[in-house]
UniProtKB/TrEMBL annotation:
It comes from Plantactinospora soyae. InterPro entries: Beta-ketoacyl_synthase, Ketoacyl_synth_AS, Ketoacyl_synth_C, Ketoacyl_synth_N, PKS_Beta-ketoAc_synthase_dom, Thiolase-like. This is 3-oxoacyl-(Acyl-carrier-protein) synthase. GO terms for molecular function: 3-oxoacyl-[acyl-carrier-protein] synthase activity. Belongs to the thiolase-like superfamily. Beta-ketoacyl-ACP synthases family. Keywords: Membrane, Transferase, Transmembrane, Transmembrane helix. GO terms for biological process: fatty acid biosynthetic process.
């Protein structure tokens, strides 16, 4: 297991801005409003012909929001590249930082699953061997529009650890901040809905036909989504020196690989348990200090039960861990999923609100060791949030976030 020691108060990592593009539209405010309004954004896919598929739902960035990108970022053949740049610009604006600042060392740390693969998808099919003018899509092409709109003077890192991508990118940015390599880290994850992804999950029989129901006894699978989520990280003392108030703190990050199965987590959730313990050890907290577990919760029959048992084991304390998954509302945005969930977690800390399991009707008895939040959510003090993500191949990445008011320590 990798443990990223970032909780030293002399190098406390603060979140100064957030940005998002999602099935709710452009902006982090649209994302949060959808959460609190309990909107379920899954629906029939319109971008591809899904008539031959038994499950035809997805979560698309609305067409009006895609059109609105023209006034925000330059054009690019990859929607993912545009989603990422738009989220980054919002995050920097939210943080009160310029997109072009010659005196700031800014690094970009981005997680993805398929990167620019959808470009290739458009060139594959009956009678099509290539798309004129596109050639071979470069994975790092997903960073093109970001580089065009933001002056990146520090490292540019593209990570692809499966659906743990967003948390892995946040952890990489934290390490760079703590090591003094950058002043500002733009961190997040991005995904563009891909016909290949839909076909792959169909072949795995992992898709729900109408709705994602994490932790429900009648859950039948997940539904792919898309978008981008970004956190802007800085040393806490730098944020305060600029006269700003940190939105939240990154208390700890941890990663593990249980190397059990290409597509399924270890039945005992060993990787998740080790990352949760690693985060708590780093932050000097106990299980009872965690007020919300933002679960991976994909709605697949096997994964949710394993995750519930692992969370109950890792956070055994005086009370059952409080758990909910956002994928019932937003589907599984793959490379963007954990990053979008981190954006929601930052707002949950500020608003003292725990989002609910919006599509939960009948909790599965195998998930009895955790406290599943009712669909309406809960108004309650939220001091810290544990957000976890799994990737195919056994990768697990977990981050622990705390309130921002004591970030300068």
């Amino acid at each position: 297991m990798s443990r990223d020691r970032i909780s030293d108060r002399r190098r406390a990592v603060a979140i100064s801005g957030v940005g998002a593009v999602s099935g709710a539209g452009l902006g982090s405010e649209a994302l949060w409003t959808a959460v609190t309004d309990r909107r379920v954004l899954t629906g029939p896919v319109t971008r591809f012909d899904m008539s031959r598929y038994p499950a035809r739902c997805g979560v698309e960035v609305p067409s009006a929001a895609v059109a609105a990108l023209d006034s925000v970022v330059p054009g690019h053949e990859s929607l993912a590249a545009r989603y990422l740049a738009a989220a980054a610009l919002e995050g920097l604006r939210h943080a009160g930082l310029p997109a072009h600042g010659p005196k700031q060392r800014l690094g970009a740390f981005v997680g993805t699953v398929m990167a620019t693969r959808p470009i290739l998808d458009r060139g594959i099919g009956p009678g099509r061997l290539a798309v004129p003018g596109l050639g071979w899509a470069r994975p790092d092409g997903v960073l093109d529009t970001l580089r065009e709109t933001v002056q990146v003077t520090g490292p540019t890192v593209l990570l692809a650890p499966g659906c743990a991508a967003g948390n892995s990118a946040i952890a990489a940015g934290c390490r760079a901040i703590a090591a003094g390599e950058v002043d500002v880290a733009v961190c997040g994850g991005v995904s563009e809905l891909s016909l290949e992804i839909l076909a792959m999950f169909t072949s795995l029989r992992a898709l729900a036909v109408d709705m994602v129901r994490p932790f429900d006894v009648n859950r039948r699978g997940t539904i792919p989504g898309e978008g981008a989520g970004v956190l802007v990280l800085e040393p806490a003392d730098r944020v305060v020196a600029r006269g700003r108030r940190p939105l939240a703190r990154v208390l700890a990050c941890a990663a593990a690989a249980d190397a059990h199965n290409p597509t399924q987590p270890h039945p005992d959730g060993n990787g998740l348990v080790s990352t949760v313990h690693g985060c708590l050890d780093q932050a000097g907290l106990t299980a009872d200090d965690v007020d919300w577990v933002c679960a991976h919760g994909t709605g697949t029959p096997a994964s949710d039960g394993i995750e519930a048992r692992a969370v109950a084991k890792a956070l055994a304390g005086r009370r059952r861990p409080v758990v909910s998954s956002l994928k019932g509302q937003f589907g599984h945005a793959e490379g963007a999923a954990a990053a979008l969930e981190a954006v929601v977690a930052v707002r949950a800390l500020a608003e003292d609100f725990v989002p609910g399991n919006v599509t939960l009707i009948e909790p599965d008895p195998v998930c009895g060791g955790i406290d599943l939040v009712e669909p309406a959510g809960r108004r309650t003090p939220v001091r810290s949030v544990l957000s976890q993500a799994f990737g195919f191949g056994g990768g697990v990445s977990t981050i622990l976030l705390g309130k921002g008011e004591s970030a300068a320590g």
